[in-house]
Every structure is written in structure tokens, then in C-alpha cells.
């Protein structure tokens, strides 16, 4: 034996086998292991099965499949030669390569000519250098005889290193002969280079290579390889089949050309590849033409569903074959996981009565998908399904048996009334759909051929589209528009859905235009558009642009060789004349018939049988009707499968298109069809055992019914009637009542009148079920007539009971309560119960007493152990009594009480059953209310609940809990205990589909909350939830209940316009009152409304209106007995009467007192049973009764009792009302102070209740109650609502990604993983921050290293339109071929780069967009299989989280690095401290500051408290406390002791490491240099002030110098006068007698002149001396006058006239007299000097002082000189600026400094018409007056 190769699975060897003549060599393929996998054996068997189709000239033919024990061997011919794999040890010589390649291409071409696709071409499957020199192929284990086949998703077919991209299961493309050419290309690559084009380590990487990577050309790997050979190989390796060679013959042609060139010249000239490349087999491209807009509309609609979550129906309409299904299936490519789930089903015109068959078909596919999930994923789905379906899972497993493989075998569901069953089914189906339709994976459900849908599915679709609890669902329906007219059920249902607010959009498909047909034909024939135009026109004329017809017509032309491939011309050829002459039909069905009749006879027969079975039929059923083994079915249907007329499904076969189905069915002659169906039905019935009969019943009954007219045998007709009964009952169980009615009617029609005797049970069951379905489909009249007739046919009690119960349901819907009562009483008479429609009180008492007699010594609690009721008559009777309860309540209370008692006695006699539970719960109504046996009634009610829990009698679970809560517990236990029962009732109602009781539970819960005074905001929330539920289940009665409750709540909360009025925008009092009174069935709602209105009017202090409402309620009170509203009526009615009595005369009050007493006694009775609920109300009514009767002491006591009881019960609203009424009571008696206290308590209690409307009413009535709400302080505890965090779901994609925190490495890992997973050629990571999007990284397959860009997004890097769509919508974009995908095809990047496959996924972290992942593959279209998006979404989600973590890690690291650099840089001192006073760590800068060494720190010698100078320790402790409280402390200055004892001034800032920590960091800045700098600054300022003072003094001295002449004149004048006066005095003294009087006068003048001189000298001294400023109050006018006198000599000398304008009474100013006079002196002297150049007559000096506003004095000095020369007048105040030859330029600068130091302002301006003016302002001194 010679082993040729061993791949680990199989061994291929050469052996010698004994023959007749001699031993001969053979080849043997055998499994490599003793226990091979089944797939390995299947492939050996498959290869052997092809032996007759393989030719030994080009293939290694199988000879035998030998089984030796457990071993299997495939024996093959041995043509000699060796496997090619043995030669691939090094690159081949070119000539060797070419000769081998040509021989392989020849063999491959021969294989394809036989119509076989190999699917596993590789070197080990090729023998070369055979005996005849040719190559041969082997390894046909995967070979397919189909021209093309679709690879199942996620299924690999072939060998990883050699498989074509479409074989990976990742592309939406079929496998055909061109797939072999790709594998041939890989083989040639290996032959040329000695290596594979790709290397990979795992299957995912191999798949990615084939889909996305372009290998290096062979000529790059090995430079000696001729370029043309390299190009040939690269063309074979094209990712898209259309871009490869199209045939092996074309490859052979080019290889031979290369061989010829090389042989001749050792060189290969350049030539065009694939010129002979057109395929000789017609392959229609797998793409849509002319439907881009329609597909986009569908995708947009799905986007709306994703965005809004609201369900939507999209209808796709058009004629048959127009491409409806194809358009919707394009949606499938977009919506595969994780973006969405897609399921589809197809209605069948021949199977319309099979209920929900299409939905079952759709969800079966989804369920089967789940079965392929991992254990972890499947467990998650199982949990979701069990949670959603709960106890009703059986309803779904009966429809979809595969579901049992996930959730197991569920228990049977409870039997319910038919209407409840329908509601339950719809509820369960909605929940079932909700498992698949979720926000993270919305569901698109495609239902094809709606024109044939069944009524049950139609109703279900309506429910799905208008139910508020269905979200994230997109329904797509396709139907033939020409078969759905105005009378079609679908039309009416669509109208109803639209009216109910359902969203429906419609897409109408038009025929293909000529251009689209031209494109299709050109791409199919690989020809130019202009050449195929005539053929396109011909096709358009014949098919009218119907796509299915177009394709079938082209294939028909090819089949009949009217469209042929010319091998010599290498192109397709057709003759229009011959085509016209053929006379093809214009009817596509006829065309398909013509195609079918050319099939083998047995195939035609099989197709006819398949057509009878339906569009799809199971393999087992096909084998049965064809009467052949299942294994032979494939062979019989092979030709039909090969011609793509039929497709193989999972264990089934189905027609590819409806038109083929119709054509196959039309092959059966009309007259033979009934016989055919009958034969099929008989075969199916005979082959189906009893256990499987129920599942197959629809198929069997359907087939037999179509042939029922041929049945003559009575027994067979009766059997078929039984089948129809079974089918009808099964359809009815699925609530498909219309379908059930059809089966039942058909069954009944099979039986004649004699059957009432011969098979009574059968015909009675058919008629009863038929009547029930008529009732359930709204045919009440027909049901009534049928049931009346059946009543006469009933022969047993059970039959009578069933008829009676159903007839009662009919009468209730017909609003004929009397009829229902009469029917039940008639039935009861048949079981010995004679009742009147109006029984007496004695009748009720007698039956009630029987309960006690039957109970005997037994305890009520012990009755739980009674045996279950088995007597059929008793069960039927109890069921009838239960039905009687509702009509009895409406007509006669005694009858209702009587039937309750009878039901209890019957249960005590016969045992418990489901109906016992609810009737026990209702006994309290009789025992307590009627006979005072409250405890007995309560205990029976508890028994009813215990039977549910302990005996599992759950049929009436919801109603039992509700009735016990409402009619018993409320009156015996604190109201809070009712809530659990009501919630259990609500849950049970939703679980079993008893939705009316769910609505009742919501209403009663609101009533309880109102009764208990729960916060009104919470009560309103509950009421709104209950109202929404009632409206959703269309329960108008409960809707009316809750609307009234909600109106009262809104009124109390102050939302209504008028307090006390129920009008709130949603409710209008007159309208609702008219509505309620107009319908007798709304009497309960009307009564409850008037009770609520009574409450509203009373609380609004309108007793008259309250009394009117009470009167309305009183007339209806009989209907609401045992409801809480009855208690509210008696409570508020009594209070309203008390208030009314205050306004009526005393003699008219007695009737009201009597009525109040009646109400009070009723409340007392209830309070005795349950003081927690009624004591406070009873006491308050008692208090009001005592008040109006004048019993003051009693009233005081009872008000206090009411308040205390209300507080004990937690009834804040009763507490509020009691306080309010007590306040009025005390106020009326003159105790105002006491009344105010009660009022304040009332207001506070109303506020706690949430009754803001009542609070405002009290404040309006009593304004003193108004208070300002306190503003919470910084230390006030308060609560505030916060948004719930949207917790992101962490999806584990890989440990590497989740564990990496280095950003660059993480990005590299994410990108490499992403492109491998998706099959991308190039990928970009875009990260978003603060609204800016940047490219963080780029990866290409040619360079695995990630290129970090951090570049802005641009059109040069990626299609911006796609990126921004993803970033703005948060949706993924997935394009099969970007070149043709609207609306992105116009993007500049796509056009310039010729982008093909594109995928862009958003990166989300906690619902926040952090970026996007963009992937592309420009080598091929259809690369990104939608099923891979799930993995990418997981990767993207995890990557987003990891990227964020890595970013945060980098930020933290960078922050830590910055802090460390700051610490190590020693720029400032940094220390780490704790609150205990320790310095844990410090940098060198701090240690240098304080003079310590690091050793001191290590030894613990440094503590920040010890270092702190004592006077700063209190400040340090305050800063520490602030840091511990807030996390940081403001920087503050302090001083440390240095080690040498000196003090160090510092500034310190503190911060905690984290909240609640007692450790932190401090930043310390040395202030020593700053302190020195501050001292220098202070010294500079002191020197500046000294210099300024010196300059001012110098200025004054200089000014004095200017005045020296004037001063001399001023001084000389009084001195001269003194001398003269002295001489005169001497003369007067010398006269005899002396003139004493004259001397006295002269001496007086002498003293005056001396004073004048002294004054002048004093002023001079004051201006010249150096003295500190002394500010005080002064009169500015006096200072001005003094300076005018001081300068008057100079003024006169200069020839200047002076004018003063000094306002009288100017306020004093605060100033230094010397400094201000210096300013005035400077200004006067400057003015005099300026006017020196002006003629004397024109020199004017004007000085003014006025008041400027209220706070300023304005002084101005103006002259008539030349004015200021500078344009910038303000420049004159600049130091050292002067226009005088001898000036210093300091005068005006000093003046401004003086004025500004006084708080004023000095400025200059022009004096009109000439001269200059200088003004200054000074602030006045308020409060100072002139002395």
C-alpha cells in the first residue's frame, strides 16, 4: 500500500486488489480514524453516488463502496500519476506549471460541462501526470449537481485554505462553477510560488482572508514568474464571481496562449485576459433591478420602528411575479441580527382554513434559529420565553411544537369561557412576539400573499398593530393588488386598523422599465447594452416588465435553444424571428406549464401531488402521497430542483414561486382534482397514527374536504365529520373561530337527519361548537336560532346545560338580561330546582339556612379538603349559576343572593370546583350585609382564595381575588390589606387573559387608595395606569369608573379651573351625565359618578349642590351595594346634610337629622366590624350630628375622637376634614384662637394629602392661613428626584479587549479583531469628543500595524454621509454594494474610491455615542454578511466601554504624571498630611523651606501642627475642618517655625484625596521674598509721598516768588499807613490841649494796618512752611475769597479784570485749606501768566463755585488768554510737561494729585469764545453746617 496523502480525516492510498486475471492497482479512500464522523462517511457515499456521472477521462471514477465491519472504504480507478500536492515542495518551472495547469483546466471544464460543481478543488484532489499525461479530479464528496446553490449561513463548505468567498457562508451569494475557479486560482498560486496566497491560524482568520484580503501577486512573491501568469492567477482570485474568469474553458484558452508564447520565446506577451470568458450557461444575476427606491422605503420604515418603537405595517402590493417577496427579502439582508430579527411566512390559497399556519411557519424559523445557539444564549432565550408565557406556554407549544425543545413540555392551560380564551390567546401571542421584538433586536415579520390569509390571523394582526404593549415590531405584508377588492376582508381590516390609530404605509411595485431589463440581460449575457437592446425590447413586449416572467422567459429561450452561446464567437446569440415564430404565450402560468410538461413524467406527477399538498410539504407527507420511500423523493424531484422550480428546505420541499405552484396544480385536470385530493387525504389518514392525528388533522381534513363530494359511503362521511369536528375544536382552541366555523359547518353538512339518532353525540357536538363559533364571530342571530333548535335536541342534562350557558352568553351580549334569566331558570327546572324570576326574602333565607345545616359540625376552613366535584350535572349546574350572577344583579337582588347560597350548598353537597371559589368569595354579600353573619361570610371568602392556592382551582382566580377584596376584606380588615389581593387579581387576569377583571382590579385599587387618603399624586398615577389599561382592553364600563375617580383627584389637586367642579378638560360634567344616563348598562358607573360628584361639591363648601348629587346617587344606590362608594355616599351624604342644616330654619331640620341618623347607624355597623376603616368616619358624622342637634359636649368629644381615629388609621384626609369641621364648630361658638389651631392642622393635613386645590380654598377663605414656604438652607436635609442611570450592558467579546487598558494597544487590538471578524479590507476607528469627530486609527489588511492618525474626519478617508448618518441616528449602516445603494451611492468617496462593501457601526457606552467603527472592502460586493453584525455589535459595545476605560486610565496616568513632575520639580513645597497632624511625605522644596532633612521626615519628627506658629493654629484648624467638609480649603497665609527657630511666612492650600478621607495634599509657597518685596514697596511709597510733599512745597515757594512784588506791595501799604498814622497821632498828642479822641481814631487805624500786614505775612508763612495735611470741614467760598485778596495786587498789576460767581449757601467740603488754596493759587497765577500776551482791555479772569448735583461742589477758573495749544488737553496734567521757558511742568500735575486725594476730579477745557478753563470737583460733607 502506498499512502498518497493523509489529511487527518481521510487517507488516500494506492493498493493492489485481486482481480479475475491478475492483481490490479486501485486507489482507496478511507476514514483516518476507527470512529469517523458521520460527515466523513456521508461524503464517501455521496462521491460513490456520482460514479455514473463521472468520466474516467478527466475524473477518478469510484468503483465500489466497500463496508468491512465497521470500516467503510471507497475504491476508485487508478489512472496512474500522483497527487499534485506531492509536487508542491518548491515553485514550479514555468513550462511545467503551464502544462499541468492546462491539463487541470481541461478536466475542470469537462466537470462543469457535466453540470457538476466540485466545491473542494485543491492539490490533494488533483492527480497529475497520469498514464496518459492528463490530469484527473477526485474528492467529489461535496460536489453538487445544481447549477447554483445558496450556502446556508454560518456553514463552511470546502477546505479553508482553498474555498471561495461565497463558500464561507458569510456572503449573500450562491455557489456555482466560478467558485471552483477561485479554488483553482489558489492551487495555481501555490504551484507558482510554492506557498499559499494567505496564511492564517484559525478558521475566522481564513474566512477573513478570502473575503477581505488581497494576496500579494505571485510575481511579487517570486520575481521570475511571468507577469501575465501572475495576472491570470489574480483574476481567478477575485472576490466577486463576476470579476473572475467565467468558465474553465476561458482559463484553459489563456493558459494555452501563455504556453505557446513561452515555448516560442521564453516570454509571454501582454494580452487581454478572459476574452473567451463568456459563460455558455445562462446565469441570471442575483440582484434586484429598478427597486432601489422601494427597498429604501422599507429600510426607512424599519428605522422609524427602531426610533419610535411603535409597531408599523408596510404593505407591498402589485401583480403576481412583480417582485414583492424579492423586495422584502432585501430587507432581510439589512435586518439580520443584531440590528433586528427577520421572520417570514407565506399564506397558501389551498390551506386557508389552517389557523395561524403562516405565523407558525414564520416563528418556527425563529425558534429553529434559537436551537442553534450556545447553551448560554439558549438559556437566556428560555428564561425570556418562560417569563413571557408563564402558565400559558401550552398555547404556543400547541402552535409551534419546536418550542418544546427550548422550554420543555408545559402543563395544560386552564379552561376559560370562549371570550376569555380569545383574549388570553391574543395576550399570550403578544407576549410571545415581545420576546423577539425588543429594543435591542426589533422584529421584522414578513407575511406573503395576504390575499389568502385566514380570519384568525387577520384579527391577530389588528391586535398587534393597535395594542399599546406591542413595541419594536415591523409587519410587512405583501399581496396581489388585483385580488384584493373593496369586499375583501383585508380591506375592511386595514380601514379599522387605520381608524384605531395604527400606522400603515404602502409600496406599490410597478413593472420593470426597459432600461432595467436591458441591464439585467446585459449582465446575464456579459454583453453590451446596445447589443442586447433588441432582445430587451422583445422580452418587455412579451412579459410587460413582470420580473418573474422576464426571468422565466429568458430561461425558456435558453432551454429551447433560442438563446444560445456561440462558442466560436464567444458570445450569446438569438434570432428574434425564430422567437416570434415560436408563438410564446403572454401568460406566465402557461409558460411555466410548458416548462413543467418537459419534465420527466414521474417528476410531473410528484409536482402535482406537491401542489395539492400546498406551497410547501414535508418529506414524510410527500413520500406518503407518492407512495415511495422518503429516500426516493429527492431523485423524483431532482430535475425540478435542478431547474430551480422547487427548492429543498429542512425536511421539506417547496415551490420557488406561486406561479409555479399554480402551473403544477393546473396540470391536474379539473375533473380529477377532487379525486386527487380525496386519494391524498385517505393516504394521509391511513398513514397517521392516533397520537399524531391531532397535529396532522388540518392537513387531513383539508384534503378530504376537497373531495368530500365524491364520498358516498356513510361510514366514511361520518369519519370525515369526526375529522372536521376535531379540526374545528383545535382551531377553536387557538381562538381561530372563523376557521373553526368552516370545519364545523363542513362536518355538519356531511351528516343527514338520521344522524340525530345514529350518531347523536357527533352531530350535537358539531352543532353546539358551530353555534359557539357563530357567537364568537359576532353572528348572534344565527347562534340564537341554532341554540334554540339545539335545546329541543338535547337529551342529557349536560347537553341542556351547555346549550343554556351558551344561550345566556348570547342574551347578555344582546342586552337581554331577562332572556338570560329565563333560559337559566328553565335549565334549573330540568335539574329539579324550581325558582321564580323574583324570589322572596323567605326563599333566600331558607337557602341561606341550608348552608348552616349542611356545614354541621365542620369548620369552614376544613371545607378546603372536600373532594373535587365530579358529578357532571352538578358541575354544569354550578357553571350555569355562575353565568346567572351578572344578569341577576341587573334584574333582581334576591335572585342574585339566592343563587349564591345555592352554589354554596351545592358545593357543600357535591364537592368543590373552580366555580365554587368565586361564589364562596361572593357569599359575604349575603351573609354579612343581609343576615349580619360577617365573620361567616368572610371565612367563606377566605376559603375561596385558599382553594385557588392550595387546590390549584385557578379558572376563576382573578374574579375570586377581586370579589373577596371588594365585597369582604374591605369591610372586615384595614383597607391596605386589599391591595395585595387586587394586585394578585390583576396579575392573574393578565396571565389567563381575563382582561375585564384586570380592569376591575385597577379601578378598585384606585378606589381603595382614595378611601385610605393615600397621597393624591400617587393615587393619580395609579388611576392613570388603570385608565390606560381599561382603554387598551376596550372596557368602557371601567373606563367610565376611572374617569370619574380621576376627575375628583385632579379637582382636589387643584388642576381643574373651578374647585368643586369636575370639568378638567378630559371630563365635561353635562356630557358625561348624558352619556351615563342614556344607557341602562351603565347604571353602576352612573351611581359611582354621582358619589364622586357629591364628594367634590361637599369639599368645595357647596352643600346645596352636594345634596343634589346625593339625591341622584340615592336613587341608584341599590346597584353599588358592597362597593366602597356606598360607604362614601353615607359619609359625605351625612356631612352634606349637616352643612345644609346650617342654612335652613330649625323647624325644617328634623328630616335631615333623621336621614343623618340612618347614615350614622350604617357607618356604626361597619365600624363595629372594621374600626380601622370606619371609626374615624363614624365619629365625624356623629360629631356633626351632635353639633346640629346642639349637643356641644358630645360634639367636642366626637371631633377629637374622629381626629385621633383618623391618625391611628393613617387617613390623613379624614384627619384634615375633622380638623376643618372642628375649627368651624369652635369659630361659630366664638373660640377663634382654638379654631385657628384646628384650621392650621386642617391645612397641614390637606397639604400632606396633596390636595393643593383644597389648601388654596382654605387660604382664600381664611387668609391668615397663608404661609411662605421656607427656603432650604445649605445645611437643610432635602430630597430631589434624580434621573435613573442608564446602565450599559457589558458584553464579553474577548478577554484581550476587556483586559487591555493601554489605549494604543487597545485600539490596535480592536481594529485587528474587527476587520478579521467582518472580512474587511480596511477599517477606521472614529472617536467623538466635545462634538468633534477624529480618526483615531486606521488598519488595512496589507499592513496589520495600526496607523494612529488622530486626524480630522474628511472625505478623503471615508464616506462622510455614511459616518454622519451613523453618528446622528445611532443606527448601523450595512451596504452590500455601495456603488448602487441609495442614498449613499452619490457620496464623493464612494465614487472616487469605487467602494463596494461597507459597514459602519456606532460605538455606544451607557447610551452615549463615543464614536464609530467603519469597515470597507473594495474588492467585492456582498462581503459583509449581515449575520456577522451581531459579533461586531458585541465587539463595538465592548470596545466602546474599553476605549472609555483606557481613556480614563490614560487621563489618570497623565494626571498622576503631572502631579509627580510637580512634586519632583520642587518648584513649590508639597506635603501629604493627615488630620491627626502627621506629615506623611514631602518634597525637597518643602524640606528646604523649613530647614529639615529627609531623615527627620522618615523618623516622624515633622508634624504640621508642631511647625505652625501658635497664633496661626486656630486658622489652620478652621481650614482643616473646611477641607474635611468640602474636600478642599481656600489658600490662606500662615507662618511655620524653621528648624533654627526662625519664622517662615507661607501660603498654604489643602485638598483631600477623596471624599470622606482624612488624608490629603498641601501646596506650600514661601512668602519670604514677597514680604521683603512688600517692605521695599512700602518704603518706595513713603519716599514717593515725601518727594510729592517736597514738590508741592517747592511749587508753593515758587509761586510765592512769582508774587514777591505783589506781596511787597501788600505789606508796604499797611506799613506806610502805619507810619503816617503814628506821625498823625504824635501831632494830635502835641496839640494843646491834646486831641484824645482823634488820637484814639488814629490808633485804631494803626492797629488795623498792622493786622493787615500780619495777615499777609501769615498767609505767606502758611503756604511756605512744611506741614502735614490737615483736612476738615471748610467753606470753599471763603478759601476762594482769601486767594483773590492774596493775589489782587498781581491781578491789578497784570491789568486783569476779575469776576466771581460764588453760589450762596454752598455746603461745606472736607479738605486741607492750604492744599486747596495752593490749587487755587496755581490756577489763578497760570491764568494771569497766560493772559500776559493779550491786550489789557481783553484780560478777564472768572472764578465760579456752584453745586453739582447733590454731592459735589464745582469750582472753575477761566481766562481769556490764548487757550491750550495741544490737541490733547489732558496732556497739560502730565508731570514735567510745560509750555513756559522757565517752567518745571509740575504745577498742574501736583494740583490734580491734590484734588484726587480729596476724592475729586480736575480737568481742563476750552473757554468760549477764547481762553482756557480749569475745573475741579470736591465732595460735599453731608450733615455739616456753617458755623
Automatic annotation (TrEMBL):
InterPro entries documented for this protein: AAA_16, GAF, GAF-like_dom_sf, HATPase_C_sf, HATPase_dom, His_kinase_dom, HisK_dim/P_dom, HisK_dim/P_sf
UniProt GO MF annotations: ATP binding; phosphorelay sensor kinase activity
Keywords: Coiled coil, Kinase, Phosphoprotein, Transferase
Residue ranges occupied by any PAS domain in the UniProt entry: 1455-1527
Reactions the enzyme catalyzes: ATP + protein L-histidine = ADP + protein N-phospho-L-histidine
EC number(s) given by UniProt: 2.7.13.3
PAC domain boundaries: 1530-1579
PROSITE patterns, alphabetized: HIS_KIN, PAC, PAS, PROTEIN_KINASE_DOM
Keyword Transport: no
Record-linked Gene3D superfamilies: 1.10.287.130, 3.30.450.40, Histidine kinase-like ATPase, C-terminal domain, P-loop containing nucleotide triphosphate hydrolases, PAS domain, Transferase(Phosphotransferase) domain 1
All residue ranges annotated as the Histidine kinase domain in the record: 1606-1822
Domain Protein kinase: 1-256
NCBIfam families, alphabetized: sensory_box (TIGR00229)
Protein name listed in UniProt: histidine kinase
